[in-house]
Structures are given as structure tokens and as C-alpha cells.
Amino acid sequence: ETGVTQTPRHLVMGMTNKKSLKCEQHLGHNAMYWYKQSAKKPLELMFVYSLEERVENNSVPSRFSPECPNSSHLFLHLHTLQPEDSALYLCASSRDYGDGYTFGSGTRLTVV
Amino acid sequence: KQEVTQIPAALSVPEGENLVLNCSFTDSAIYNLQWFRQDPGKGLTSLLLIQSSQREQTSGRLNASLDKSSGRSTLYIAASQPGDSATYLCAVRIPSGNTPLVFGKGTRLSVIA
């Protein structure tokens, strides 16, 4: 474990389902991130939360909805996804700009 | 816009060989540079973090260098082992803009026993 825990590790969902991904960190970090990793593409930043406020939304479709109830928890709510949304979704956290990122193990999402 | 390039995209070496992975970035205005390792289907494991004021960092058989003015970093792996087989990702943290951490596409390393 890296200090950032993601659940579930694997998720298969239909296009009409609603599901949520969860991320938790107890490293004392004040920023949390969602990244998407598709095959043969660089990691894509989706959302950034700093001090529980969303500071970045990188043109992500509204079928992805993030939630950050406190500085230790981050959720990604999913609804009416498309097959092309199948990917590895990674959560990360950091402290300030001088620090590195700590990543979770990811959730492998398959949309059928 | 900051762009990160990693060369080569894939590398296969025999066990025991020393090797160098390359990373270049287009804008020298960075806070730090971080090297990660990723095993297939898994998350990213941080290997080394180099602050913008530093020239290199070492951890065990790994040594990472940073030349900020030329926009380059290298990851040196000594005495490679089959367990080193993974994808290695380079990322720079930028002080402004919409993308705090910018990644390269990675180098996929295979160490053959």
C-alpha cells in the first residue's frame, strides 16, 4: 500500500448503471486528483481538489462527477458511461507544490 | 504548453546490463520532476523526486539526474534485473496552468534473464 487506497480494484458496469469510485489518503496531503489512463495514451488529468475545493476540471464529460467531502476522501461518481470510458482510473494526492505525488493502485473500469 | 517526451518507447536488455532512460520537457519552469514505475494494470509507484534546484537523486540502483536549463532528465538503472521490468514514467510539476503534473508516455522496459 502506498498510503492512497482506491476501491474497488476492478469494476464492470453497464452503460445505464450508476457506480462510484472511492479514494482515501491519510498522508496529511491537502490536494487530491483523479487521472484517467487509457491504452497507449499519457495519463490524463481529470479533476483537482485543493483543500476540498475543486480547482480544476479538464473538460471532463458530465457523466463523471467528482466529490470531495473532506481532505482525506475523494469520490468519482459515474453514470451513463460509454464503452470508450473503459480505462484505469488513478487517484493521487500531494501536499504542496514542492512535494511529489502519491498514487493509489487504481480502479480498472470496464463499461459494457 | 508543457510537453514531456520519453525515449525510447520500449527497451529490452539482458539481465545485468546498466541502462539509461531519457526524459525531455519543453518548458524549464518546473517545481520538480518525478520518476514513477508502473507494473501492468497497476498504479504508479514513485521512484525518485528531484526538486528544480537539485541535480540528481539516488535510491539503491537508481540514479536520476536533472538538467533544467536543457529540459532533460535521465534515469540510470544499474545492474538491471528481471524484476525491473515495468513501464517507467517521467512527470514534471509545473507552477501554473491547468495541469499540475504533466506526464510522458513512458518507456516500457523488459529485462531478459
Features:
heterodimer; A: 112 residues; mainly beta; seven-stranded mixed beta sheet; four-stranded antiparallel beta sheet; 57% strand; B: 113 residues; six-stranded mixed beta sheet; 11 strands
SSE ordering of chain A? EEEEEEEEEEE
Shape category of chain B: globular
* Rg value of chain A: 13 Å
Query: What is the N-to-C order of secondary-structure elements of chain B (H for helix, E for strand)?
Result: EEEEEEEEEEE
User: Into which percent range does the helicity of residues of chain B fall?
Assistant: under 10%
Mean pLDDT of chain B: 93
Q: Give the number of DSSP strands of chain B.
A: 11
Number of helices of chain A: 0
Tell me the distance between the termini of chain B: 41 Å
Helix/strand class of chain B: mainly beta
Largest sheet of chain B: 6 strands, mixed
Overall shape of chain A: it is: globular
Q: Which residues of chain B sit in consecutive blocks of at least 5 with pLDDT less than 50?
A: none
> Structural class, from secondary structure content of chain A?
mainly beta
Overall helicity of chain A: under 10%
**Cα-atom radius of gyration of chain B:** 14 Å
Question: Which two chains have the most extensive interface, and how many residues on each?
Answer: A-B, 27 and 25 residues
* Percentage of residues in strands of chain B: over 45%
Strand content of chain A: over 45%
Can you describe this structure in just a few lines?
Chain A is mainly β. Chain A is built from no helices and eleven strands. Helices cover 0% and strands 57% of the residues of chain A.
What report would you give on this structure?
Chain A is mainly beta and 112 residues long. Chain A is 0% helix and 57% strand. In chain A, strand 5 and strand 6 form a beta hairpin. Chain A is globular. The model of chain A has no long low-confidence stretch (mean pLDDT 89). By secondary structure, chain B is mainly beta. Helix content of chain B is 0%, strand content 57%. Chain B is globular and about 45 Å long. The model of chain B has no long low-confidence stretch (mean pLDDT 93). Chains A and B meet through strand 9 and strand 10 of A and strand 4, strand 5 and strand 9 of B.
